[in-house]
Structures are given as structure tokens and as C-alpha cells.
Design goal:
The complex is a heterodimer of chains A (108) and B (122). With 108 residues, chain A is mainly β. Helix content of chain A is 0%, strand content 49%. In chain A, a hairpin with a 6-residue loop joins β4 and β5. Classes of the chains: A mainly beta (108), B mainly beta (122).
């Protein structure tokens, strides 16, 4: 299976700062089918990015994704208070579908 | 827009069968999308269980395949999960989710249920 490793585990930043999250795959992600999700406590994950770089409906343009094959990055250009959450990457190009372990973005 | 809602018992006895249903509203289950089950535990994070297409075709996580059945009921616009021989390790929040497919291009899990906690305990 495709193992996804996210780093860092925790990112401590202030509102207005830039967040850069990494997701590395153990093998090439088929068709660049890599997604990013945001999850807040007690809520289901919310799709932010699909296809490595396409924003999902209603997602602000401060969220952007880039990458291909095994290395992917999610960037949040200016953190808003509501952006402090846990972020997961997922590959959905090869079965079994897999998720990364998550990066927690916390308020510094 | 489509909405998903999980339902089923919140407590299952060890060695029993976990059964959940996901109702789909605001859209038809008979589309080009795939309908998924995902679970989440503090220890193992998010784990994909499997998926079903409206035709009944399925794909399962090999780690659970021997115990899992996912089925679809088009007449009720819902799909279901059965997990047999459960243990405490199956205690988790279970989510149903839609893997969106548009023009043969997959677009991630764009709709999720709220999740339901299932505890395995005697």
C-alpha cells in the first residue's frame, strides 16, 4: 500500500503567518490523486484540495496545493483563526486508499 | 447538495457484528461516484474501510477484507457496512463519505457524514 508521511507533526504559528505542510508518499501517487482535508474537533474531515492542486468548492484561495509523484505540499498563505486544525493528506489513486498521520496547526 | 447520515447501534458486543447504514439525501446514489466507509481512532488515525458503486461493485482494505461487507440499496438511496467478529480494536468513529467522480476524474471525498461512534464492549 502507499504509505503517506506528513511533516511536521505539529506546526505552531500565529494568525497571519504562512503555513507549509508536507506529505511524502512511499511510491508515486497514481494520476496525482492526492487530496488534503481539514478536520476540527468533533467534526468530519472537510475536503480542501483534490488532484494535488485543485481547490474544492468554496475553499478560500489562501489554501493551495502543489506536488507530483511522491512529494506534495499544502500552503496556507495567511492563517486565519478558523484555520487552526488538523490537516490530512490522502491518496485515492491506488487501492487501498490511504491517509497520512496528520499535521496539527496550532496557535503559537 | 448531497448529504450523508450514518445510523446504527453505538454499542456492539465483542465477537458480534457491527452494522451501519449511510443514508444519502439531496442526490441519487446511482451516479458515477463511489460510496465509502472510513473510520477514525486516536491510535490509528483515519483508516479507509472500503467502497461500493451503485452497481454493487466493491473494493475493500485488505487489512479488513475478511470481515467486511459493503452493500448498496438503490431503492432506499443508502449503502451499508457490516463488520464481523469485532474486538475492542474496532472501536472508532465511523464515517461514510462520497468519492466524487466527474467526467471520469476522481475529485476526493467531497461529502462526509457527521460520523458515529461505535464502541465494542461487553
Amino acid at each position: 500500500e502507499v504509505v503517506l508521511t506528513q511533516s511536521p507533526g505539529t506546526l505552531s504559528l500565529s494568525p497571519g503567518e504562512r503555513a507549509t505542510l508536507s506529505c511524502r508518499a512511499s511510491q508515486s501517487v497514481s494520476s496525482n490523486y492526492l487530496a488534503w482535508y481539514q478536520q476540527k474537533p468533533g467534526q468530519a474531515p472537510r475536503l480542501l484540495i483534490y488532484g494535488a492542486s485543485s481547490r474544492a468548492t468554496g475553499i478560500p484561495d489562501r489554501f493551495s496545493g502543489i506536488g507530483s509523484r511522491t512529494d506534495f505540499t499544502l500552503t496556507i498563505t495567511r492563517l486565519e483563526p478558523e484555520d487552526f486544525a488538523v490537516y490530512y493528506c490522502q491518496q485515492y489513486g491506488t487501492s487501498p486508499l490511504t491517509f497520512g498521520g496528520g499535521t496539527k496547526v496550532e496557535i503559537k | 447538495q448531497v448529504q450523508l447520515q450514518e445510523s446504527g447501534p453505538g454499542l456492539v458486543r465483542p465477537s458480534g457484528t457491527l452494522s451501519l447504514t449511510c443514508g444519502v439525501s439531496g442526490g441519487s446514489i446511482s451516479t458515477s461516484d463511489w460510496w465509502n466507509w472510513v473510520r477514525q481512532t486516536p491510535g490509528k488515525g483515519l483508516e479507509w474501510i472500503g467502497e461500493v458503486y451503485h452497481s454493487g461493485s466493491t473494493n475493500y482494505n485488505p487489512s479488513l477484507e475478511s470481515r467486511v461487507t459493503i452493500s448498496v440499496d438503490k431503492s432506499k438511496n443508502q449503502f451499508s457496512l457490516k463488520l464481523t467478529s469485532v474486538t475492542a480494536a474496532d472501536t472508532a468513529v465511523y464515517y461514510c463519505a462520497r468519492l466524487s467522480s466527474i467526467n471520469r476524474s476522481l475529485r476526493g471525498f467531497d461529502a462526509w457524514g457527521q460520523g458515529t461512534l461505535v464502541t465494542v464492549s461487553s
